[in-house]
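User:
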Amino acid sequence: MNIIFLITRATLFFIFVATTVFAQQPPTVPFAQRQVKFENGVIGKPLIFESATPRNFEEIIGKATLRSVKLDGQLFVPTGTEAQAVVILAPGSGGVSADHLKHAQALTSAGLAVYVLDPFAGRGIRSTSSDQTQLTHAASAYDILAAVRMLAAQPDIDGQRIGALGYSRGGAAILLAVHQQMTRAVLGEGKSLRAALVGWPLCIFQFEHALTAPTVVRFLVGDSDNRTSPAWCQAQAMAMRAKNPHVSIRLFKDAYHGFGYSFPLREFPNIQRTRLNAPILYINDQGAFLDLHTGEPIPGIDQFTYAKKLGLAENVTAVTGTKPGQSEAFVEDMIGFFKAHLKP
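Assistant: Predicted structure:
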């Protein structure tokens, strides 16, 4: 009976959002092919771009020849005659959801364009929730920078005011992408994201040298998250702040994974994570993971393959969702952050 109740609540919630935020489409229709119109009148424009699927960070930083892939998403531009600041929205392991579109709508209502990126459909992936090895985090980080490159060339976008918003896996991708080691390799010297906000990201994979200036970075983390450790994110924020004063972190009290979404707490089975007591796994400036015990580089390995090799990966039942007031506080923080750092 409890299962039936949860399914009913989830179904009703989806129907409500689908009819008020975007035109309801069959679930088999790829996101970029859906007709999406926000309540504020902003209509999505499908936009395809070329990314790649690197096997590890070494291939990106070493500028290896990468296997290209066409990815898509939708660009939402509020009414205006001047070039717009834009936020790249990177979803988590489950792909684009109704909550992501609600957040995109809120940002467009605040006068910011939003590009909602679909990192999975172009690769034939539905979700990485139960198996993160389907797609490397190196590829996800590359997607962010490839989207920056594409958006900077759009006539209605101000290429100097591009930000990024990521959740869980998407947040981890952004945290890796903002490092100078990555931006220099993909965007070129002196180019970077203006601002980045990440919600409940996976912070276990970190660059040994946290060089993120001049990007303004903000972490929004739940202290009760049992899908990713808030302690990893606190450590990463402090490491970044040593070289970049524009890094901040907010720890939400009694908050779980996905506390910024609008559905109540519920359990999700078969979620792949790294053990919450696992040590941080570091990456050197050339993109190689460092041996956990010797500090020596291990060439040619990607992050979850390494985590599994060390026995740090596991599949569990994890709690995700929000408690009263948390979703609203997340959205308020999100809008305030991007208005402060992307608006003229």
